[in-house]
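User: structure tokens for histidine kinase, please.
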Amino acid sequence: MNIKTKLTLAIGILVAMIVLLVMLSVVNLQILTATEPNSPAADLGLQRALLWISIVGVACICTGVGIWVRLPASISNPIKEITGGIQEIANHNYEKRLDLGNNQEFIEVSKNFNRMAKRLADYHASTLSDMKAAKKYMETIINSLNEPIIGLNNELEILFINDEALSVLNLKRTEIIQKSAEEIALRNDLLRRLIRELVSHPGETATESKEKAREKKEPLKIYADNKESFFQVKYMGITQPGKNGVTLEKQGYVIMLRNITEFKELDSAKTSFISTISHELKTPVSAILMSLQLLEDKRIGALNGEQEDLADSIKENSERLLSIIGELLNMTQVESGKLQLKPKITKPIELIEYAIKANRVQAEKFNIQIEVEYPEDKIGKLFVDSEKVAWVLTNLLSNAIRYSSENGRVIIGARQTDTGTVEMYVQDFGKGIDPRYHKSIFDHYFRVPGTKVQGSGLGLSISRDFMEAHNGSLTVDSELGKGSTFIMRFNS
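Assistant: Done. Predicted tokens:
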């Protein structure tokens, strides 16, 4: 029975009951009217009329209440079941089915709903199976990689991890998948080191930030495969198109560890080889210079012009070779971690005077005027290894002289900032350095393309290493055609 038939039947019954009540009242009223008021039959008729009217009235009321209670429920209950079924489907319960009784309209609705639910269940099952297959395939690929890989979401929950990473971290897969990496890091030092880069600390000091940057730059030392291994950590953000399909939204991170143990061992072997060769070369070069000094001694005879030119050439090349050997030795000290600082209290002006004295002959050779800028106000003293810092300043001044045109000028000076940082700088007015190479010039053996001035490409890299060893920095400010300024900063 459909809803229309139900409503028609209910209204018809109510109307029929009301008509019956009215007719009964009219008939009994006619009978009472025709009866003598004072006769005994009148009282009996009145009582009979009231009885039938009461019975029919009560029946009408009961019928109306019954219809009022049952009719809305027969309509609202199926609607509630449909609403509940839709909510179940929305909650991915595709096994939900509806049985809405004999209402014709709702029978059709339930059939369509059940057909839709079955199709969704079939689609979900096939999609789930494809997703499981894709996930398994992805896990197989990730586990086949020899490099440790860890995937995390924005809340730093571990989404996936391969066997290599589990082995390195000494963890079990079941213990960490879908778990917070920060909580696991509380009991795992290596994982804490890995996610430190991803965790933000609002109250982090400049020193802590610098320490994090240093740790990020240095290889990670891990005891793996029964030996000490070195890994380079790489962080990558996971992004995907957002709701608008265009803007990329960050969904998490991937941490990759590249095993560089083999390269580290080769680098150590290279450093050891260079150190050994440098030491071996230093002795014969020093012997050549000593022999040359004896040859130039007038007491054993004067040299002719050609011999003096040859002696000057030998001396110049020997000193250049000795300088390169010194740079190589300094480099091997830094790379092997054997660089030892012997700090003492030093005035910046003393370092400047030393650098000028060391480069006076070279400046006179190219007729370069060295200007000193030093504040009249008292400048703070430095607690540094004066020998290493003087080497850096001497190297910068030597470069400035070599890259300046003849009859030019070079400025060397020191200053103290409002924050208490002491800066020493060397400025030249040569052709300058292309901004593309401002970072590369501090790499080992790098030389700006097209440079005609001779050099090993080690001086600036060693200078930077010496400054970083003092918790300082070495930067360059340069424009083509306007010269260069190298700034040494000593953080207080």
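User: Anything notable?

Assistant: The radius of gyration is 47 Å.
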